[in-house]
Task: structure prediction
Amino acid sequence: MTEQAPRNKPSATGGTGIVADERVRPISPLRRALIRPELGAICGTILVFVFFFAIARNSGMFAPEGVMNWGVVAAQFAVIAVGACLLMIAGEFDLSVGSMIGFSGIIIALLSVTWQYPVWFAILVAFAIALAIGALNGYLVIRTGLPSFIVTLAFLYILRGLTIFISISTTRQTIIGGVREVAAGDPLAWLFGGKVLGWLFVWLADIGLIGKFVAGPRAGQPVVDGIPILIVWALVLVAFGHILLTRTRFGNWIFASGGDAQAARYVGVPVDRVKILMFMFSAFCATVFATCQVMEFGSAAADRGLLKEFEAIISVVIGGALLTGGYGSVIGAALGALIFGVVQQGLFFAGVESSLFRVFLGAILLMAVILNTYIRRMITGER
Amino acid sequence: MTNPLIELVDIEKHFGPVIALNGVSISVLPGECHCLLGDNGAGKSTFIKTMSGVHKPTRGRILVEGREVAFASPRDAMQAGIATVYQDLAMIPLMSVTRNFWMGREPIRKIGPLRFFDFQKANAVTMEEMRKMGINLREPDQAVGTLSGGERQTVAIARAVYFGAKVLILDEPTSALGVRQTANVLSTIARVRAKGIGVVFITHNVRHALAVGDRFTVLNRGRTLGTALRGEVKPEELQDMMAGGQELAELEGSLGGTV
Result:
């Protein structure tokens, strides 16, 4: 029966005859360490810190209040970057993040201030609407088979237009203020506004580790009076996203959906569900951002969140994710957001013209994409 | 004679006005390698997609171990023990071997109410199964992209076998491979067959088919031209049947008989 077989397969008779291909060089540990999505972001973070430590060390950038300053900006980027990161790894984009931020903010302010519903109710409604729009985004992408780039671009305009329309037609203005007043004592609003660990900073000031105000109405209080809740949100979302992606079954499905949706479907991965859920998560992150911003400023404006979708995507790409999906890292995206925050505020501390920030943005984006393409070739062995 | 694992009787499949399959019958016995030969457009792909639950047949019956079934989805077919390894969709190159191996069926380790991917178990099983198939991985989290085309097919086959496939459908596993990698895949087929799994080997290469096949069914223009046993049929005859007995006749002399 099988006597004919060996003639046709001379090299594979031994049990482990296929093993070592002599043309594949063993990979050095260094090279292996290089092949990880976060590499570019880690290098970038180190570079950026060294750079600003060199030129802006005495500007107060690395004093506690300076750290809080760029920390909050980095946290803002990180919150939306986590959503964009998981979605991009699942193989899709969401360009409606920025418009969603403006939309959710106006919903909260409109419901709570103009129509005088309780703030917690306004927040819950905003999240419910945002999740529904995220699901609609995902559903349309799945059902039509169109690129998510186009579908969410449509929602970028639809949501922004609706936001301005709703705001003007109900209040005759595009900014709705007075949220802080109605939010006082609300059972849910504290989760998105204010600061935590205030007692720790009072104690740190008492033992002299951080300074106190010496004059003015806040004399005697520490210069940093707590960690803004937005930073806590950023840390929680990054930890959640990272564990979900790397340590769970669902995380494997995210990689598979973005890596090759058809191959994933053939082995029973619910690709449609994964993608729709990731669109909803992206909308959730945008609404967390919006709610924190509304609580911090005490107002909502129809033009909030402009260009945020691109900043989120750039953070993710700096973090090593591939635009084509299937590969990336939440930690990387968080580092991308950190680089963003440090540079944006650092240029201010260093007294550099702030328009240069955009030049930097474009340059670092280009570098990151080139590096990612190279790393991808190393992983897949493409030429 | 043992009973067939799967039997497809007079399968017809119409796509609108196009009749892709017009009465195809095949059966697969445990431990046999049944080669399905056919030129491009003969209906091979449509037929295996019907077998693996992607398409529903317009007419005809599918029997799994003697019982008539109707697959609603590829998942149904998988649960009935029919696994398909597609030529280009077998693996996701950017993901690790372990992640690919367990894709869709990840082992779970519970910590309190939380459910995590059990990488310890997944890695150990993957390494072991790969070793059985004759591939020594450098490490289980090495990306599939670093493997050769033949090794990727082997990982996909090992995965199907590990998850209890009774019938393994291989869609042109050798068509994009070089000589040595082809030999590796053919020896993997021999290994799988030895476990009592029925293999359906789709190819248009008569040499590859004759190397491992027990029975040969030729498809031409949506019909079966009959099934031949090993030893009963010459390569030239198979070749002729695939081509519909026409155009290749003149070429034979200069090509040495087979293509």
Remarks:
- Strands of chain A lie at 175-177, 195-196, 227-228, 299-301.
- The longest strand of chain A covers residues 175-177.
